[in-house]
Write a structure and sequence with these properties.
Elements lengths: L11 H27 L4 H8 L5 H33 L10 H29 L3 H18 L13 H13 L7 E4 L8 E4 L6 E5 L7 H16 L2 H23 L4 H19 L3 H21 L1 H15 L7 H7 L5 H12 L1
Parallel strand pairs: 1-3
Antiparallel strand pairs: 2-3
Helix pairs in contact: 1-3, 1-9, 2-9, 3-4, 3-9, 4-5, 4-9, 5-8, 6-7, 7-10, 7-11, 8-9, 10-11, 10-13, 11-13
Length: about 350
């Protein structure tokens, strides 16, 4: 008589991240499929007729607003499922709901699409068949404004305990790093998050308040990682690569579209959604993984071997990464390397 061997149970972090991953895939997939179903049904032509007598800028902006509204409805279910997953796994802090951060993100995202739609309409008015060149030029201007002007990921909140921050500042100074100009925000999660925004005198390091729950030495190490991203030019590299990729999608749309302003916005949304999805097949995740490993290395030089390992352990404990993802799934969907890979990468430095 044989006994069946039970498969090893999946760790909670793996279940958590896979549910979140499928929420993201489902939301993006619903939007992409809906756009491609609407294409042969003549949505672009219908909007062109509806707004034929409108100023091109307004027609483009309204078309973008309608698309944003539809996409938000499609995305609502997966977003709620992701929120409930965070609550179930203890990643959402008590008393912090989804609506505040969600509404801020929705406003920023919708506003960005409406402005982009107006830019497309303006380009169609001035450029005619060469609208795509003017749209790319407008993209460059908007990208510059976005990079220069610090835009908070969500609602800004007061700084955490001052004594804790003084200890973090002392640790940074001991690492020969400046104390950054910090803007705090509350994303409602236990996970650790942050990143730079702005340039020159407008540059700020946006940090989630969850970092204040970490001991000062490790918090300083995580901030050192962000200095690594800054000093290694990762933000510039990512911005240039993103602009180049979007410009390619705009040029591709020009080859496929023969519509007025509103219709062009619809075709552009369809093409760009697909184009950005294709970017997941190696380009963006591989770029992100390389930058993460380089930032880890930079922080490790400041922290030393033991504290660098403790920094990664704290990230693992707080962010619950999935350490059991198949290599193919991780390659396509994850710009952050598995934690075991990050630990091995650090071990090469300190062996």
């Amino acid at each position: 008589m044989t006994t069946a061997v039970e498969a090893p149970s999946r760790p909670p972090s793996a279940t958590y991240q896979r549910r979140r991953l499928w929420c993201g895939i489902t939301g993006i997939g619903l939007i992409l499929v809906t756009l491609w179903i609407a294409a042969p049904l003549g949505l672009a032509g219908a909007l062109d007729q509806a707004f034929a007598n409108w100023p091109p800028e307004l027609a483009g902006a309204i078309a973008a607003l309608l698309l944003a509204f539809g996409a938000s409805l499609l995305q609502a279910g997966p977003d709620i499922a992701a929120f409930r997953t965070e609550v179930a796994f203890g990643q959402r802090r008590d008393g912090v709901g989804i609506f505040g951060p969600y509404l801020v993100h929705l406003f920023q995202w919708t506003g960005g699409l409406v402005v982009a739609g107006a830019v497309v309409g303006f380009s169609v008015r001035l450029g005619g068949d060469a609208w795509w060149l003017l749209t790319i030029a407008g993209l460059l201007v908007l990208s510059f404004v976005h990079v220069v002007y610090p835009l908070s990921p969500t609602s800004r909140v007061p700084a955490p305990d001052s004594s804790w921050w003084l200890r973090v500042s002392a640790e940074l100074e001991a690492m020969n790093l400046p104390v950054p100009n910090v803007a705090w925000y509350d994303h409602g999660e236990r996970s650790l998050a942050g990143g730079w925004n702005g340039v020159g005198p407008t540059r700020k390091l946006f940090l989630a308040t969850s970092l204040s729950e970490v001991e000062p030495k490790i918090a300083a190490g995580l901030i050192a990682r962000e200095f690594g991203h800054l000093k290694l030019g990762h933000r510039l590299t990512t911005t240039v690569a993103t602009i180049a990729w979007i410009a390619g999608g705009i040029a591709l749309t020009w080859l496929l579209s023969d519509h007025g302003p509103a219709g062009t916005v619809v075709v552009l949304a369809t093409v760009m959604s697909t184009w950005c999805w294709l970017g997941l097949l190696g380009l963006w995740p591989s770029l992100g993984r390389r930058q993460v490993l380089q930032a880890d290395w930079f922080a490790a030089e400041k922290l030393g071997a033991d504290d660098a390992r403790r920094m990664l352990d704290e990230l693992s404990r707080r962010n619950l990464p999935d350490e059991t993802l198949p290599a193919g799934v991780a390659f396509v969907f994850h710009p952050i390397p598995p934690m075991d890979d990050r630990r091995r990468h650090l071990s090469l430095k300190f062996r």
